[in-house]
Design goal:
By secondary structure, the protein is mainly beta. It folds into two domains: 165 residues, lipopolysaccharide transport protein A fold (Sandwich); 101 residues, lipopolysaccharide transport protein A fold (Sandwich). Helix content is 6%, strand content 66%. The chain has one helix and 18 strands. It has an 18-stranded antiparallel β-sheet that branches. A hairpin with a 4-residue loop joins strand 2 and strand 3.
């Protein structure tokens, strides 16, 4: 996967928060305060120490220390970094991390990195990771290291997740939960499409394991080498040495189509059904 990847929906929170930060750095009415500040004319850098606060455009960022270029091309904040900003719709966005940095001479295209126990919240939605990086002026961003995201339509626990516009990717997916169809899935890799906060399609590969409840709440477990989820078709297609288990029976096949609303299963490629077992 590329260094700047695509991901499930919430890092938009991150991008919005930092767009406020960067706009504040460049804006005429931005204010930087601290217990002490030093300017080095040889390097063109300002160093701020103690209760550093950067405010402007309806938001603020604080930290224990800060360092930045007078030109605005670089700015770093370290130690108990906190941010609080207001989105266009009035939602309050909060960011917590150990350090945050911005590199670039223009707001659009500047690369922002937050690191060290990063936590982004917007209402009840929350995203945590070791490192989050994104590019201002666009929708590309990525999160790496123990990524946990809980959003309106889905949640994810993975090694890395990313999003660009309405496409997302994830690696090392320990748990992905899609709320509308109540699908839980794990896989080596996953990618797909979003419509707002709703997952419309997803392709997973590498040791795929999925569990889905039927109308009565009975769980069906499906495993295989790959899977394709489609909200429009209402199906989960699993391929590659597929094993489907339900209470009292087990089905093996080359591929299966599971119809999410009815619980109906179509098996293709030498299906074999065993009764009287409940293998999980």
């Amino acid at each position: 996967m590329a260094n700047v990847k695509k991901l499930p929906a919430p890092l938009v929170i991150c991008a919005l928060a930092v767009s406020f930060l960067c706009a504040a750095v460049y804006a005429d009415d931005a204010t930087l305060t601290a217990d002490s500040m030093k300017y080095d004319p040889a390097t063109g850098m300002i160093t701020a120490e103690g209760s550093v606060r950067l405010t402007g455009l309806g938001g603020e960022l604080t930290g224990d220390s800060g360092r930045g270029a007078v030109s605005g091309s670089d700015f770093e904040m370290k130690g108990n970094v906190r941010g609080r900003f207001t989105d266009k719709d009035g939602s309050v966005i909060s960011i917590k991390c150990a350090a945050a940095s911005m590199k670039g001479r223009e707001i659009a295209g500047s690369v922002v990195t937050a690191s060290g126990d990063v936590e982004l919240t917007r209402g009840k939605e929350i995203l945590t990771a070791d490192v989050v990086r994104w590019t201002l002026g666009g929708a590309a961003y990525s999160a790496d290291g123990q990524v946990l995201g809980n959003f309106t339509g889905y949640s994810i626990d993975a090694d890395s997740v990313s999003r660009d516009a309405d496409r997302f990717e994830a690696d090392g997916v320990r748990k992905f939960y899609e709320a509308s169809k109540k699908i839980t899935m794990s896989a080596s890799q996953a990618e797909g499409a979003l419509n707002g906060n709703e997952v419309t399609e997803m392709t997973a590969s590498g040791g795929v394991v999925a569990t889905v409840p039927d109308r009565s709440g009975r769980m069906t477990r499906l495993s295989g080498s790959s899977a394709v989820y489609s909200l429009a078709r209402g199906t989960l297609v699993v391929s590659g040495r597929v094993i489907v288990t339900q209470t009292g029976r087990s089905l093996k096949s080359d591929s299966i189509v599971y119809f999410l609303d009815s619980g109906h299963i179509d098996a293709h490629g030498s299906p074999s059904l065993t009764f009287g077992t409940d293998r999980r």
